[in-house]
Amino acid sequence: MNSKITDVYMKMLVESVEQQSEKVNYRSLEEVYKDSVNGNLPPHKHIQVLGESYDVRYKKESDSEYTDIKVGDEQFQKAERYLKADSSIVDQGIAKLRETGLTDQQIKQLVNTVYNHDEPERFFAGLSNQMSADEFFNAPNKDIIQLVIDRYGLDKDLVLDLLQFEPATKPSTGKGETFMMIFIDGAKKGAVGDVDINGIEYEIKGSGARIRGQKGFSSQTTAARKFLSGITELIQKAELDIDIVNPNFNLGPKSNGFIDQVANQLIQTGKVTREDIARVYAEGLKEVYENADIQTDLIPWLMSSLDENGNITGKFLRNYFDFALKYYTNTENFNYLVTIGTTRASGLKRLGKFEIVSREDIMNGNYKGKLIPASYPSFSESAGAQGGQFAIMSV
Question: Residue 359: which of 137, 142, 203, 175 has the closest Cα?
Fold first, then answer.
């Protein structure tokens, strides 16, 4: 049976309660519902009771007349939370939030999220008892959701909302960033990375976030055009009659792309070399990674990733990701890269889990076993502005 009870079915249940109450002692709606589904009772939170409505009267001290309004359960409960909360604790909490660099509008959005849940005072009181960065990054099982729940006694649904909070206004603040600024002492909006904690810059990557900076990156569509012109020249050089119709240049676990499909034929003619194939890849990738040097940054790993026939080997995707991650790190100026599972779409086992890797470990290749691609770049026009870069996640 559907876990949501429709209005019609709800009416039937209420009538059943009334009939039962005339014969025996009053029984709860839950008991009647349990009987109606033969004892297969879902969790309480899935039983949605028709809401009450409330008549509310209010006025400012300076007003002479009251205003009367009618509100529903959700509105009334939220208003009640606002009214019951200790204003001094709330004011202290908001002052603490202002220290993070969040704008007043962003703080307003955050506070509105908090008041969607019971006991908002617990949240505001927690802002005066923030944890150190060491405590945060040493969370048991690398689970920051459970860490916050255990430390502050907050409701899990609120903690999840805070982890996924992403202000709708500028400056851009991604999922996970506000969470760190809320709970870590000294954390604020970074001048270089996403979050600054006592002068150390952290780059935060929530679920699905791309390793793409504000500079040094260009469009994947220009890369696709470069791939097309390069492979077309090689086909002409090899004097082969190969039709090129809507070629797919995507490189990932599910596709080696069009260049790989024709590489073997080209080299067999003796007129095209493995180096020629590598250069086509390099010149295309150069269009995405603008500051990369073709000869020193691209050709070496590409040559080691192609076999004697110019075809992609098992090393290719690993080397491709390694190059892209190091390029991103070299372009940006953070001290640490932090990946956090911020949505259920990332998989429940990753939700709230994190990995932290230093800049040095990335550049030395010591990130392996910690960071992997969440998705591979696309060179199609439909991929969007971020589509030409890797998305990243923790292992």
Answer: 203
> Minimal CA–CA distance to 225: which of 279, 280, 272?
280
Which residues share a beta bridge with 351? Answer: 341
Tokens 């009251």: give the residue.
66
334 near 305, Cβ under 8 Å? no
Coil, strand or helix at 173: coil
pLDDT in tens, 195-227: 999 999 999 999 999 999 889 999 899 999 999
The end-to-end CA distance of the chain, in Å, is 38
Bridge partners (DSSP) listed for residue 338: 204, 356
CA-to-CA distance for 165 and 311, rounded, in angstroms? Answer: 44
Model-level pTM?
0.81
Two tokens at 335? 């001290």
Residue that has been written with the tokens 């960033």 in this structure: 177
In a 10 Å sphere around its CB, with 0-12 CB exposed, 13-18 middle and 19+ buried, how is residue 28 labelled? exposed
Locate 7 and state its tokens. 């209005």
Q: Are 172 and 101 in contact (CB under 8 A)?
A: no
**pLDDT tens digit string along 21-76?**
444 455 555 565 556 555 555 544 444 455 678 888 888 889 999 998 888 888 88
Give me the sign of the Cα torsion angle 14, 19, 21, 22: positive
Which runs of E-coded beta strand occur in the chain? 53-58, 67-72, 187-189, 195-197, 200-205, 336-340, 354-358, 371-375, 391-394
Name the phi and psi angles at 341, rounded to 5. Answer: -75, 110
